[in-house]
Structure formats: structure tokens, C-alpha cells
Amino acid sequence: MKKLLLAGFVLTLFMAVTIISSGNAYCEKTYKLTIATGGTGGTYYPCGGGVGELLRKKVDIIEAATAEVTAGSVENAQLVNRGKADLGLICWIGVRGAGLLDKIPNVRTLFFIHGSTCHWAVGRDSGINSFKDMKGKRVSLDAPGSAGLVSSELVLKLFGIDTNRDIKAQRIKQSKGADAFKDGRIDVVFGDVGWPNSTFMDIATVRNVKILSFPDNVLNKIESTYPELPPETIPAGTYKGQDKDIHTYTEAGPIVCRADLPEEVAYQIVKTIYENQEWLTKNVHKAIGRWKFDPSVGDLAPLHPGAKRFYKEMGLLK
């Protein structure tokens, strides 16, 4: 009888230890995420860094979420597709222009981010007021692997400018282009960034600069040819010396993740950012206030199941 009781006690103790151990193992299951962003002079990098810090603090199963410097959207889509990054900020025009839309089967969408608003900065007394005026000029177009390079070349081509013959194209990072512009080594610097942007704010403190504003017929032609480039207005007063609204266009896109990211992780990412959007806007970047949580983000690449779960809870999906 004593042996039977002892055996029962040992079995009970074993089961208790097993349950506790299993519970601890579950609690200890956390994730270290990487977020593919862009260059340090753009908007993707600080936004990605702020989001990463928020997720680390607010989501128990996320141990770390680190923003990585990259060339931008095109590289980000490739990194996420190959599983080299967990999340990535992208814009569709870069992915489409690089011929990648049907080559990223392992990418899933979460929600829309701010558009990367296209800034074309020139000297105020340069005489450059349109794309055609850029012929023969030294123009910084952004770096290889970026959506900025893709979109800037597509738009210039749309208005009859061959970037290999008609301008002296500089295919360099936006931060380097800005430095060259400040030093007078180039005439035009392009940037696709959320406004207000620190790089263009800095440019305006060094040179008497203007950011080109385009008429409706130009913006309509851009959007009708490339729906991923809708019009956008930069409000007056955003930059030094800017006393009027700037009418330009933007590169629309989402935050994406790898297809095999666990559903619970993806769900917590979308939910946490949605619930803390106001804080992120005030403390990280104003552009985050223009992020949109809409299931139509899955039109060009499938929604992640975790995002679907969130949108169903919000009543936006059946």
C-alpha cells in the first residue's frame, strides 16, 4: 500500500513539474524581430525605430524589434520575401517598377503606412520650375534598390526625359544627395519621404531653396499612368520659406511581413500600433498619423492571417 501511495505521489509530482515546465516554456517563447526601413535621412528609418521600441515595450512576446538601415522599398520587399527581415516598409511603385510584384510570394501585408511624398528641391533662383527645366542639370535621383530611384526615373521618362542622356543623373542615397545639394555640387535633389522631413528641413536652413509644386494636369498624368502615385499636398509652413501649399504626389504602400510570421505576433503588431497611433504620431513622427488600417491593403499582396483577425474584430472583414 505504501509503495502504491509513493508511486502515486511521484507520478503526481512528475505531472506537476511537467505542467509548470511547459507553462514556463510557453511564457519564455518570445521573438526578436528585424524591421527593414531605409536610409537614416528618410522617414522609414525613424518610423521603424519608433515602432520597434513600442512593440518591445508593449507586446510581451516581442523581446526586440530592431530597425535596420536599407536601400529602401525594393530591397525591403526582397529581404522580407527571403526571410532576412521580419517586417518591411515598402511602397508599391518601387516594387512594381522593379518587376517584383509576382516575385515576392512570401510577403504578406499588414496595414497602410504614410505615402512617401515626393520632394523635388531646387535653388529658388535656379530657373527650374518643371521636369523639362531639369534637362542638362545635375540631378540626384536616389540609390539603387530604392523605390525613389524607380519612381523618379519613371516620372521623368513620362515627361520626356531620358535619365541616361538628358540629365547628369546621380544615383546616390538621398542623404548624400542632400549634402551635395547644400554644397552646390548638384542642381536638383529628389526625396520620397514623409513630411515634415529632417533632411529637407536642413537643406532649407543652408540654401535658399524651393520644393517644386506641380499643376493639376501634371499630377493627373502621373496618377493616370501610375495609380500608385496619387496627388498629395504639403501644407504651407512645413518648411522654411514655404508660404504656400506644395502640390506634388506620393508613393503609396504598406508595412509587410514574412508569410510564416506567427499569427499571434502579426495580430499583436497591428493591434498595438493601431491602439498607440496617436502616441507614435506625437513622439516619433507626424507621418504616422497618416497610417491607415484598411483591409484593402491586401489588394496587391495577400493579407497576413494575423491582420485578417484584427480587421474581422474591427468589423472591417467578414
CATH architecture grouping of the largest domain: 3-Layer(aba) Sandwich
Count of strand segments? 12
The name of the CATH topology of the largest domain is D-Maltodextrin-Binding Protein, domain 2
Can you tell me the CATH superfamily of the largest domain? Periplasmic binding protein-like II
List low-pLDDT spans: 1-27
Question: What order do the SSEs take from the amino end to the carboxyl end, as H and E?
Answer: HEHEHEHEEEHEHEHEHEEEHHH
Q: Which class do the helix and strand fractions yield? A: alpha/beta
Number of domains: 2
Q: Termini, distance in Å? A: 60 Å
Q: Count the helices. How many?
A: 11
- As a whole number of angstroms, the C-alpha radius of gyration is 24 Å
The CATH C-level class name of the largest domain? Alpha Beta
- Characterize the biggest β-sheet: 7 strands, mixed
Summarize the SSE layout with pairings.
Layout: H1 2-27, E1 31-36, H2 44-58, E2 62-68, H3 73-81, E3 87-89, H4 92-97, E4 107-112, E5 116-123, E6 138-140, H5 147-158, E7 168-170, H6 174-182, E8 188-193, H7 198-206, E9 209-211, H8 216-225, E10 231-234, E11 246-251, E12 254-258, H9 263-275, H10 277-283, H11 305-313
Parallel strand pairs: 1-2, 1-3, 6-7, 6-8
Antiparallel strand pairs: 3-12, 4-12, 5-8, 5-9, 5-11, 10-11
Helix pairs in contact: 6-7, 9-11
